[in-house]
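Hey there, shall we discuss this one?
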Amino acid sequence: MGNLSNRNGAHIAILGATSQIARDLIVSFSATETRLFLFARRPEEVAKWLESVGLSGCYAIGDFSAFGRQTFDAVINFVGVGNPALAVAMGNSYFDITLQFDGMVLDYLRTHPVCRYLFLSSGAAYGSIFDQPASRDSKAVVAINNLAPHEWIGVAKLHAECRHRAHAELPIIDIRLFNYFSRTQDVAARFLITDIMRAIRDRTVLKTSPDNIVRDYLHPSDLYGLVRALLLAPASNVAVDCYTRAPIDKVTILSTCQEKFGLQYEFSQVAAVVNATGGKPHYYSLNTRAADFGYQPALTSLDGVMIEAEALLCCWQ
């Protein structure tokens, strides 16, 4: 299998182009000669968004029925749900959606076997128990006799990864994303970091549980760096975990936001939390396998969160 390092203007399909993370990556690619083909259930929303960021007419747009009519060097699959409350509401349909679009790409690869496939997986593929961070030696833990709804997303991603490893002859890399934050985040989503941003914006008191969880927030620039490294390296069939230069704990996030942005917060045992994939004290990874592909994160979690928080808060002023 070759690589894309000697290609200018590579052709890449983005599936799920209405996803916030996909949009951030599209903006990152816009500074390159890469030709993107954007696919979504609602292509008109993609066109409207491209216009809003000054990229109108730069990329071809289509619904999923148009996928497969072109020849791509790579396909990146973002189809899924980024909002935990919406993920809970979707319930078991998440299995069908993941299978449908993953199967669509696998069918494409059978007739285009040199096309790279990057699948946006999740740290939840390891299971819902994160008393310790993930590592290269971690095993997926699934409560097969008592599977709870909050575990469905992780199991759907795990099933996809198993399908991919079963096609060892195909160039497929699963990217396990744990935590992500950017200035384009939907602040209505129920994540700790968006709860913090809303409290700062609205000048309200954030009520949060006293549990000092640890997270690793990937910055859009490091996501782009990871994707680029994976596309430029020799093709392989493997899974990699996302990571920054250093994770961050909740107490540090709260105290830093208090100091820099005037966040008001208090600990409460009855604070409302939406955990689409379960409560995870140490939801991050020490598995640095991505380094084997040349990935080197530039930012720590704290660096990335502060950069994006400052930009987001400036937009509200």
Q: What stands out?
A: The mean pLDDT is 92. The CA atoms of residues 5 and 232 lie 5 Å apart. The longest strand covers residues 116-122.
